[in-house]
């Protein structure tokens, strides 16, 4: 690899970065602005200098035309003769080579002049500037230039009168003549203008450098914030090992707000990523757990059916089909619960609240599950003193909550135990709870029992085993009602699952 090309590439990248950075662009724009300001101020200065010079020159030569009239015998008598005045004008121009002398009649028509005939482009000039000159108008005052069809020049003028005092014409003197200095000539010959330009250029350059330095200092906190973004993205959206950010008292409030906003945003992103990672891990564990739950009833179903097929028609036992059917039902329940949980977590489920008599619904659920409770030797009953009080709830989902909680309580309550559905008034709500006197839950495991993948240490195996999704479904359904489910449990004393429902208006 050619080192020269590598170095050249690095220089180009740096230049590109400088042009794309805020400081680089500001320096470029500021330099352009200062250049335009310098050109504008310089042009205005030169124009002002020229105007001032013309004003001074016109004031100094204000009486020039009058003196020429006074010194010339023919003009003093009011006589305007081109043949006579030609030599006189030539003599006058020896005193001022840059003057142009014109004799006009009372209408502004040129009668005699010092310039060669081919140089004069106008034969008549406007008398308005001459009248303003006599009236004492402010200088510089410009009149028509006979040598140009459009331009105007500073001048001196005087009336030409005869012996009786009658006006016979005007003497019109262009000051400066054809060889007047241009701006470039003025700049090249004037030491004052040269020094002024140098001073102005130095001031503009100093101002530009100072402004860029100030802007770099002001944008330094933004540069640090950009580096924070780069560190955050390069370290997998994590602020670990990030240098400490310190704000001085002179740090702009907007920059402090940006850094605070970045901290909030970064914290939110980190939290979301952590939730995604946790959810992904839980999803994998749930899939593993559900796969195991699928595998057990499927293997049992397959085993019993194969055993039943291997037997002869006379020896086939109906109990095998019954066990296989039980496993098929358990598998179907698992699928239903899994799909229900997915719909609840995805929000793809309808919630239709209506007035519901909670006590009546509880009695119906108890009646439906009474045979299951009797088969386990557990007493199941409702305890309430508000038999007609209505709550605002989705009756189907509330029934599902009660069924799942009672089923969970029955599986963890030994024979001779009791499961009670308690319904009571609580301020502006109805409190519903399912209590049992079974084995209870370890205190450390209480926050985990609503995770669909979690199996508590008191889980029931064998015939009474469940899928582990019932309590997770309960939590989601209770949340739909705007409530939270609370758990109180002591080992070997029992558990109580309770929640509140709003009163129906």
UniProtKB/TrEMBL annotation:
UniProt keyword annotation of ATP-binding present: no
Residues annotated as domain Histidine kinase: 289-505
Transmembrane parts of this sequence: 26-47, 197-218
InterPro entries, per database record: HAMP_dom, HATPase_C_sf, HATPase_dom, His_kinase_dom, HisK_dim/P_dom, HisK_dim/P_sf, Sig_transdc_His_kin-like_C
Broad enzyme group: transferase
Enzyme Commission identifier(s): 2.7.13.3
Gene3D superfamilies the record matches: 1.10.287.130, 6.10.340.10, Histidine kinase-like ATPase, C-terminal domain (3.30.565.10)
Subcellular localization: Membrane
SMART domains documented for this protein: HATPase_c, HisKA
Domain HAMP: start-end pairs: 216-274
Keywords noted in UniProt: Kinase, Membrane, Phosphoprotein, Transferase, Transmembrane, Transmembrane helix
GO molecular function terms attached to this record: kinase activity
Catalysed reactions, semicolon-separated: ATP + protein L-histidine = ADP + protein N-phospho-L-histidine
Record-linked Pfam families: HATPase_c, HisKA
Name under which the protein is recorded: histidine kinase
Organism listed in the record: Corallincola spongiicola
